[in-house]
Amino acid sequence: MMSQHRIVSSVTISGLRLGLVLTTALLSGCAWFAPDAGMGVVAGIAERELKADATAIRTPDEAEAAAIAVRRLLGRTLTADAAVRIALLNNRGLQAAYNALAIADAQRVGESLPPNPTISLTRIAGAAELEVDRSIVADVMALATLPARSELAATRFEQAQLRAAEETLRVANETRRAFYRAVAARELADFLAKSQSAAYSATQFATRLGETGAMNKLDQAREQVFYAELTAQLATARQRAGSEREGLIRAVGLWGSDLDLKLPGALPALPARPQTLAGVEADAVRRRIDLQIARLALAALARSYDLTQATRFINLLDAGYADKLTKDKETGQRMKDRGFEVTLQIPIFDFGEVRLRQAEANYMQAVNRLLALAVDVRSQARDAYRGYRSTYDIAGHYEREVLPLRKIISDETLLRYNAMLIDVFSLLVEARQRLAATIAAIDAKRDFWLATVDLKAAVAGGGVMGTKGEGSTPMTDASETGRH
User: Fold this and answer.
1) 3-state SS class at 428
2) Strands, sheet with 129-139, edge to edge from the N-terminal-most edge strand
């Protein structure tokens, strides 16, 4: 602190006003590390959007507490919310994002500190004299612009906090998508396994009818090929279920002995009523984290633009204390001369116009990118809500209309077969059609829950991914094959 005092007092040679500016810069520019390394903002957004806790794990005790919580959640049948809580505790990529936030906090503190002074010592010994030059030089412009640079660093730190929050939402959304895909794949595989068992019984029955002459070879072949195709589709469904399960394991960050997670046997039931978001566009513009980051980037550029204007002509100015000590070797007399030293870059070729034009262009580029992002956000919110409502209506239609009607048809067909009013062929055709309808209903419910995640992502942020490319499972086509 003594050296800083000497720097300031030496600069007052050029004027009391400059010294006052430098003193204010030294006192107001300093900052220190955030107690939570910026995690307070992240935790607040996670609580509001996810109803879950976001925690940075930095000590062995915190790691042990997180491991205990994960094991407790894995001990029960998993839900989408439980999977998200596990991911927030156990996903190492997310923890790396929280480490990046701590790095940004350190950078903020570093940008708010005054520049270190430069100490120079020159010793020249001659035959008659010994000269020692000493100087302490500080970057005056860096000191003068310290409050502005500190404010700019704080804005960048806010951006880093929002980026960490956005990564938290992204991990949560990906975990929910992986959960719904894994559960739907398991539900489909289980259903196909039951259907294969029924198809095998039908094939055996057709074989016995063929042996008695009641069924020709063509009809026997149709039943056998349906069973054969269903067996192949079951193998494909089981492979897909295993892959989707691994996707969920990656999303939540499990390994080792924790891989035996317990998935439910079916997707959750549809909500009684769909969400009604009349102001979904305005809500997305207000809450989307990537838009908030872009706004902060624009504010940072505006502050940087002001800083560029301030240093347009003087971009390097060093000033400080200097003295010269001369000693006569013959007489031993010491003479000390005091003064100050100033280093100034002279703008002969570049008068700052280049940097000024670049700053203006960068600012307008950021403005246009922010406006373009706002247009995209509004469109994504509208599209996501339309997808949500359409998938809800489709899944509800299968649940309320198609499947109950198919059950009635199957029951009535079985009654007529038992009463010997229809033959076995009508019974087998109806079994195939009901199989296809059930598979389509599982697909529709999966698409609805994926669309729910996409709607949340479109409004709050964390990655927008459409579900239109999900497609139907291969079994749908196989079911159609059996319709003859």
Assistant:
1) helix
2) 118-125, 129-139, 317-328, 334-344
**Which residues are 131's β-sheet partners?**
124, 326
| Separation of alpha carbons 218 and 228, rounded Å | 15
Q: pLDDT digit string (tens) for 310-344?
A: 454 444 444 455 555 566 556 666 666 665 555 55
**Using one digit for the tens of pLDDT, what is the confidence trace for 441-478?**
999 999 999 999 999 999 998 887 644 434 444 333 33
Residue carrying the six token digits 């700019």: 152
Distance in angstroms (rounded) separating the CA atoms of residues 455 and 442? 20
pLDDT band at 417 (very low <50, low <70, confident <90, very high): confident
Cα–Cα dist 244/237, whole Å: 10
Burial class from Cβ neighbours inside 10 Å (0-12, 13-18, 19+) for residue 381 reads: buried
Name beta bridge partners: 124. Answer: 131
Q: How far is CA 380 from CA 107, 168, 390, in A?
A: 34, 20, 15
| Inter-residue contact 180 to 267 (CB < 8 Å) | yes
pLDDT of residue 399 exceeding 90: yes
- Residue of 31, 33, 11, 32 whose CA lies nearest to 22: 11
Contact, 294 vs 370, CB < 8 A? Answer: yes
Taking the model in full, what pTM does it have? 0.77
**Based on the number of CB atoms within 10 Å of its own CB, is 213 exposed (0-12), middle (13-18) or buried (19 or more)?**
exposed
- Max CA distance (Å), the chain: 137
Residue 434, phi then psi, degrees to nearest 5: -65, -35
Residue 373's nearest CA partner among 248, 237, 464, 254 is 464
> In terms of DSSP H, where are the helices of 336-402?
353-397
Q: Distance (Å, rounded) from C-alpha 228 to C-alpha 224?
A: 6
In angstroms, how far is CA 267 from the centroid of its own chain?
A: 25
Written as one letter, the residue type at 362 is N
Mean pLDDT, residues 54-79 taken together = 92
How many residues would you count in the chain?
484
Q: Quote the distance between the C-alpha of residue 123 and its chain's center.
A: 58
Determine the pLDDT at residue 128.
55
* Gap between the Cα atoms of 438 and 474, Å rounded: 13
**Residue 17 DSSP SS3:** helix
Burial class (CB in 10 A: 0-12, 13-18, 19+), 353: exposed
